[in-house]
Structures are given as C-alpha cells and as structure tokens.
Amino acid sequence: MRYLILSAVVLLTAFMAQKKKKVIFFGDSITQQGAETGGYITLIDSMCKVENKTAQYEFAGAGIGGNKVYDLYLRMDDDVLAKNPDIVVIYIGVNDVWHKTSFGTGTDPDKFEKFYDAIIKKLKDKNISVILCTPAVIGEKTDFSNQQDGDMNKYSSIVRGIAQKNNLSLVDLRQKFLDYNKQNNTGNKEQGILTRDRVHLNAKGNQLVADEMWNLIKKM
Predict the structure, then answer these.
(1) How far is CA 61 from the centre of its chain?
(2) Which domain holds residue 37?
(3) Which long-range contacts (CB under 8 A, 24 or more apart) does 43-49 make?
(4) Across the chain, where does the E strand assignment appear?
(5) Which of 15, 63, 180, 192 counts the most CB atoms within 10 A of its CB?
(6) The total number of structural domains that make up the chain
(7) Are 177 and 6 in contact (CB under 8 A)?
C-alpha cells in the first residue's frame, strides 16, 4: 500500500512538472535588463513564488540591446522556437522609433507591421500563446513635447491593431505609462518617473511592467 501511494505521488509530481508553462520574454535592452536583479522578469518570478505558482510557470528572458522588430524575426528560431515555449511576450518597438532619429536605422511603419506579422505567424503555427506589448516611452514629458511622441503613438497603434486582428492578448504599456505620468509627473520631467534615462526602466517602471504582464499571464 505504501509503495502504491509513493508511486502515485511520483507520477503526480511528474505530471505537474510536465504541465509547467514556459514563458519567454522577447525584446530589446529593456527586456535584457528585465532579466537582471530588480528587472521586470525577475519581479514576475518573485510574485509567482509569493503566490505559490512556481509549479505552474518558468520564465526566461530573450532580450538583446539595440534590437528592432526585424532582429527579433531573424533570431526567433534559435532564441525562442527552439526552446519550445508555451507563452511568448513580445515587447519591441522603442528602437524601431528611436533609431530613426538617433542613427537613421529605424524601421518604417509598413515594414514594422510586416515583420511583426511574420513573427506572429511563426508563433501561431507552433500553437504558442502570444502577448503583445506596446512600446512605452522615449521621454516622459506629459505635454507630448517628447521628440518621438508622434511616432510612439503611431507604432503603438500598429501593435494594437495587430493584437486585434489576430485576437491576441495586449499589454498596453504606452497607455499605462502615459496615465501614470499624467498623475505622477507633475513637474513634466523627461525622465526619473518610470525610467532612468527616458527609455530604460527604473524600479517603479519595472514594477509597473511586471504587474501588468503578470496579471495577464495568469489569465491565459
């Protein structure tokens, strides 16, 4: 009898381990830093542990600094698909906008959408669940005087449209950051509210992103 109970426990444990969902966060330097101490991925992992859900999820970052949407497409076979994820969170777009002004190497809107669509198709063909994120900010001024605000709004609209036409989950970080800054950036500062340098997240920014993503991941 004792042997049968022990065998049942072993089989149940093995079954639960097989059901663990692998979540990969796919993006640029914001995601690369998200996997570091205090980053949004590590915060999600910590919240998962606090909620006693570690048997249900495992998390991995796949972010590389400077990446744009076509970089994600070119490396997704090795960095994402080969790892057999259940859920992929795509957080891209800042460099596609930012590098147009900084280096002249950004991504035009039509190409941004085409590469994004191609990424989605590859993931859907593998029956992988997808969460899209709008790019948040390049500058935190609340009066829309940040240089790239127009493009950030446009590219965020493209991501929203891709999510809608593919019936995919969306974390609208662009809107969340704008709303937070309207309430908390009364001095109209260009950084220091949710970012440390207008783009990359500070502690509060990482926590906001972690909260929004984790709330959605749990619902999938």
Answers:
(1) 9
(2) 21-217
(3) 43/206, 43/207, 43/210, 44/210, 44/213, 44/214, 44/217, 47/210, 47/214, 48/214
(4) 21-27, 57-63, 87-91, 129-133, 169-171
(5) 63
(6) 1
(7) no
Beta bridge partners, 133, equal 91, 171
Q: In Å, what is the CA distance from 146 to each residue of 42, 56, 140, 172, 181?
A: 30, 41, 7, 19, 13
Contact 94, 135 (CB under 8 A): yes
Is position 154 within any domain?
A: yes
pTM: 0.91
What is the CATH number for 146?
Answer: 3.40.50.1110
Q: Give Cβ neighbours of residue 188 (< 8 Å, ≥ 6 apart).
A: 141, 142, 143
User: pLDDT at position 5, please?
Assistant: 53
Per residue in 15-31, pLDDT (tens digit) is 445 589 999 999 999 99
Q: What is the DSSP letter of 28?
A: S
Q: 130-175: per-residue pLDDT in tens?
A: 999 999 999 999 999 999 999 999 999 999 999 999 999 999 999 9
Burial class for 211, CB neighbours closer than 10 Å (0-12, 13-18, 19+): middle
Residue 198 CA from chain centroid, whole number: 18
Contact of 60 with 48, CB cutoff 8 Å: no
3-state secondary structure of 8: helix
155 occurs within a structural domain:
yes
